[in-house]
């Protein structure tokens, strides 16, 4: 009895190791590493540079969407429209450029602007009316989905000009081929990670997520900040649109239909709280990689894809459970 | 108080994640055991990528492939898109299978055109790629195609309907698949060709996605629009059963002829029960089995399968019409899938 009454946790000063352990990304990182170790042991093909390059390439589209999703979830919002907005952006870029309506670079610029416009519209509706983000983006999901199918006439766009597929090209690094698009995604993750952790803007985002009212009373222009975040997310979906067509080499009206949920999955697996104010884009990067590594590793082992779905579902529930329990403890 | 209970939030996280990893281990163990022929590394690997995991047609296809893989002592890997039309899911599956070192990939493309670049990359690495059930656009993007001739499948029920209508003026409803999907277009066109009609004779055409509930809604709307409909062409039997439900609600199930394509077991039973007059049965099991055999042959001899192989289609009905070759539902139920 006497031994257990000693609050040992309080006696130790926070060491580096301890701080590492308390970081919200530690759990996901451990899960990712364990998965990697497991797959390396069970298949010969997993632990190769080519395979890792492939995994990053496979997750770059959802990864880029998930950066925008993280920003929005940090404000205690959610974006269900990201995949559909991306699909619309990509089909615009592809069709305009393939049919010669605009030069490829202008088509890309227009696609980015349109995606940013969707984000702006989401932000205005969420902030100005205001409406719940869930409802606004659910509506926008259908709007963007329908516009994609109307505009494309249900046709896949092929024969894309070079600039649209440039990011899908590779360059050699040692014995491995790296896709340019992977670098774009990684660069965006690093950029946003820096902005969130080391700038005033980043601190404002977290403050807004914890309590909009407190943030406002502290002199943060919450309205402008919120609209800015949704717009930035929209622009990120535009980048994802370009990455998508560069990866598949076609403009596909069916694209992105489950990417909204996939991006939320990545955010949650990365330790970002759906209640806002807690989390990081680096966590999201780990979350995206967890999904990518599982899918790739299980496939290499010859496990049917339905098990991948099963495992992803269990992972998400566990991640949210951990988030809830840790919240209760923190209170 | 809560602190003395021991686990900090972060430790909990780590614990949970370790649990996840453990769970994965068991899931993998059971998954690979049932999913492959259990042969050791170094044996020939064959990949099968379907549109979805859940459609009975593809479940049967997988069964056929598994059986053939076991018989030939090769390892089968399977994957599927998350939904019908999920191109990027199929692209990812192709890449992972090539990384896993498969000798050949059998694929039912969700998007005939969009899958082509990924297929070309796989073929460039010496992987034999065979399309099952659905052709790519262009068809030459894959090494070979093993599929039902959907035009023929449509023609058979068209000819049957022509004979069964016995010269009555047809008011046709067409419950189609979805815009621009070749399978649906070919069956629809084949039906009209076999019946000797044109799209002008179709008084109501609706997309159903091959879904029973949507088929029912479509038929209800068609009857609203044009009550005199007396012949219903459906893309598959779920759509046909939906149409039957709608017709029955109006008391019209006896005087409207429903014809369909697919030959699933539920659908064939519906033909036996008299809900559907006739259906063109196709053979997914055969497509997959022959696909696996072709990959094995390639692994052994280096000879690649090529061109189009028709895996056959049979008209199934219990009300045979003179001049139209058909088999009864006893045969149909023996050879059905799903």
From TrEMBL, chain A:
Extent of the signal sequence: none
Transmembrane region(s): 20-41, 61-93, 105-125, 131-151, 178-196, 227-245, 266-294, 300-322
Record's bilayer topology term: Multi-pass membrane protein
GO MF entry, a single one: transmembrane transporter activity
Keyword tags: Cell inner membrane, Cell membrane, Membrane, Transmembrane, Transmembrane helix, Transport
Cell compartment(s), UniProt: Cell membrane
Cell membrane as UniProt keyword: yes
Cellular component terms per the entry's GO annotation: plasma membrane
Pfam family, one: BPD_transp_2
Protein name: ABC transporter permease
